Amino acid sequence: MTRGSWKTLILGPYSGPMNGKRIVLGVTGGIAAYKSPDLVRRLVERGAQVQVVMTSGAREFVTPLTFQAVSGREVRSELWDSAAEAAMSHIELARWADLVLVAPATADFLAQLSHGLAGSLLGTLCLATAAPVAVAPAMNQQMWANPATAANVALLRARGVQVLGPGVGSQACGETGEGRMLEPVALADAAMALLPVQGPLAGHRVLITAGPTRERIDPVRFISNRSSGKMGYAVAQAARELGAEVTLVSGPVNLCTPPGVRRIDVETAQQMNDAVEAEVAAAQVFIATAAVADYRPSNPASLKIKKVTDSLDLRMERTVDILHAVAQRANRPYVVGFAAETNDVELHARAKLERKNLDLIAVNEVGDCKGFDRDDNQVVVLWHNGGRQELGEGSKTVLARRLMALIAERYLAARS
Ligand code: PMT
Fold this sequence. Notes:
about 425 residues; 19 strands; binds ligand PMT; 2 domains; Rossmann fold
């Protein structure tokens, strides 16, 4: 990919994180098939092209017309199809797919697939494809627990088929247990993580800190910084979209891990530092978005402090500056910091850039209704010798993509 084209990918029109990826969605004959049109919608809204392939059993539950309406493509079912290239649907689709996802996958289909049976279009294309194959089992809980099904699933897993779910809960048959198909949103996210990602950062590892840290006062109280983790998680997703292998060291937040991102949960600044120390040698780029507590109580109490006095003095000590420590390493990665400032924003940020020896610093003004704990932000990026680029104002998702495009451009240029 040329430099211009990947910048267009991020800064220009953007069709979603799946960006035109081609997914063959196999639908087999189970009651959970009623959720599959919604799965198609979730995949399409993430930017994927979806070709539905139905078994004859699936057509008993949902009509092909429904799938055609949501996917914009005619449904395929026949092994020998005069409309397909050389009349061979299975080869054409097997080559076309970036991913084959079967949802729902019945017990019967899992048995067929594990034994390499090729009597249907779906079974045949699963054998013929070089793309990753994933199945989302859906069946009665006794059928799922049956040793025959368990053996088939074990065989499929051993051959590299991804088994997504099943979930636990009430079933259409009135029973409760394991065997429900995962919900469409969860399946779409899982599919995204399975897609091979190409981009300018493919083969490069990016380590990111995000969220706040919590420093204990006693077992029930802590000191923390304001941070929802939204900015850091958006940066992790944007790095992944550029093809990077992303590890996210995260303080306590209420966010889902972006698809395809490896997440390490920590609570304190010391734990965040330990996790970064363990990972940083393998990373080529380090991005510190976390709002790390600069001080922690020197002597946290082991029991809850009782409110017996009118005031309470807390002695505090400095925590380790994770970003600074990474930037001092002998074989340091490309280092990007964030600056959260309330006043003289760029002045303070430029001082931090120099003092912490960073390659880039992303600056955001914070305060009431700015920066923290909201979906939007405003970011300026600074680098040495007066370098400056405004990324503008907008959602953290969009700003993170612009930021990652700039980081990728400058990091790759610095290597060449
Ligand atoms: O999480 P959100 O609600 O989405 O909010 C996003 C954000 C405002 C928290 C984020 O965009 C941001 O600005 N993060 C940096 C917050 C911060 O702590 O800034 P700082 O200026 O105090 O620290 C400078 C840099 O040093 C930061 O990269 C920080 O991660 C790093 N640092 C700071 C202290 C420390 N002990 N270790 C560090 O690594």
